[in-house]
């Protein structure tokens, strides 16, 4: 009798399974476990997204402030020793004021620019350049630096105005270039092609280095993208795409179809620098 009481009847167990009470209980536990794991995963993903969002917001601001602070301290370290003590606020205060050296540097450069704008200043500058030109090593460094500064900072210099696409390094692959101007001089004469344009092909992620190419203007697809947007795209290796990315792809497809038919796209002829005729 006791054996019968201690022994579980398979039929009874099957009936309890059919009734659904133990099975429903285990199923509800499994569901609760899955929901708790899912909520934990979801919360972790949200925390990660919050962290990345904060990093994206704070990162550029922090790096920008650090660079500005480093630049101010660098100029202060150079200029402050040259400022007379009577004009230096640090002489009268018990704490240094950042930016005083930068302020004096801006004032000094403005005064020098105003002096060199008249005849007397230009005469002194020409004599100084004559003295530097007689120094064998210094004159090469001075001329190179002067040309770089005049090219980058001069208001009369023509910077990049247009962004284009060329097929590089082979057909079917496109690279972003900055169009500078129409090619002139010996290069245009030797090639015997008056439709050449000078373009700069930047490298990623450093757009300050690259290649100077002379390309026929019919082989350049001019984009509506600004120079700033193109620079961002080059620096980010394509991760930061301008709003006209879809249009860029459409232009590439149009260029491919026009090339297959042997025609030059109309927008190329309209936007590229006009060829000068003598």
Please characterize this protein's 3D structure.
It is a single chain. By secondary structure, the chain is α+β, with helices and mostly antiparallel strands. It has a domain at 162-271. The protein contains 10 helices and 5 strands. Strand 3 (196-202) and strand 4 (210-216) form a beta hairpin. The longest helix has 59 residues, at 21-79. Residues 1-8, 10-22 and 32-36 have low confidence and may be disordered.
User: How would you classify the quaternary structure?
Assistant: single chain
Gyration radius from CA atoms, angstroms: 35 Å
Report on the biggest sheet: 5 strands, antiparallel
Number of DSSP helices? 10
Outline, from the CA principal axes?
flat
> How confident is the prediction overall: mean pLDDT?
77
What distance separates the N and C termini?
A: 123 Å
In sequence order, what are the helices and strands, one letter per element?
A: HHHHHHEEHEEEHHH
- With strands numbered from the N-terminus, the spatial order across the biggest sheet is 4-3-2-1-5
Number of strands: 5
Strand % is 5-15%
The secondary structure category is alpha+beta
- Helix % is 55-70%
Catalogue the unreliable spans: 1-8, 10-22, 32-36
């Amino acid at each position: 009798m006791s054996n019968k009481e201690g022994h579980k009847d398979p039929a009874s167990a099957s009936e309890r399974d059919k009734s659904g009470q133990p099975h429903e209980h285990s199923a509800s536990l499994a569901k609760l476990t899955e929901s708790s794991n899912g909520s934990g995963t979801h919360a972790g993903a949200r925390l990660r997204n919050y962290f990345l969002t904060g990093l994206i917001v704070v990162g550029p601001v922090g790096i920008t402030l650090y660079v500005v602070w480093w630049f101010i301290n660098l100029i202060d370290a150079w200029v402050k020793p040259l400022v007379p003590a009577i004009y230096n606020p640090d002489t009268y205060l018990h704490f240094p004021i950042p930016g005083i050296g930068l302020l004096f540097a801006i004032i000094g450069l403005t005064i020098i620019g105003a002096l060199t704008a008249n005849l007397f200043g230009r005469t002194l500058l020409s004599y100084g350049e004559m003295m530097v030109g007689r120094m064998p090593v210094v004159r090469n460094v001075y001329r190179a630096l002067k040309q770089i500064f005049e090219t980058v900072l001069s208001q009369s210099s023509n910077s990049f105005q247009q962004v284009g696409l060329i097929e590089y390094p082979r057909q079917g692959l496109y690279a972003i270039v900055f169009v500078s101007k129409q090619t002139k001089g010996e290069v245009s004469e030797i090639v015997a092609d008056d439709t050449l344009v000078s373009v700069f092909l930047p490298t990623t992620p450093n757009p300050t280095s690259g290649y100077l190419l002379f390309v026929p203007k019919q082989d350049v697809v001019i984009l509506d993208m600004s120079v700033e947007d193109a620079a961002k795209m080059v620096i980010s290796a394509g991760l930061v795409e301008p709003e006209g990315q879809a249009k860029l792809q459409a232009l590439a497809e149009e260029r491919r179809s026009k090339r297959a038919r042997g025609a030059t796209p109309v927008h190329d002829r309209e936007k590229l620098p006009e060829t000068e005729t003598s």
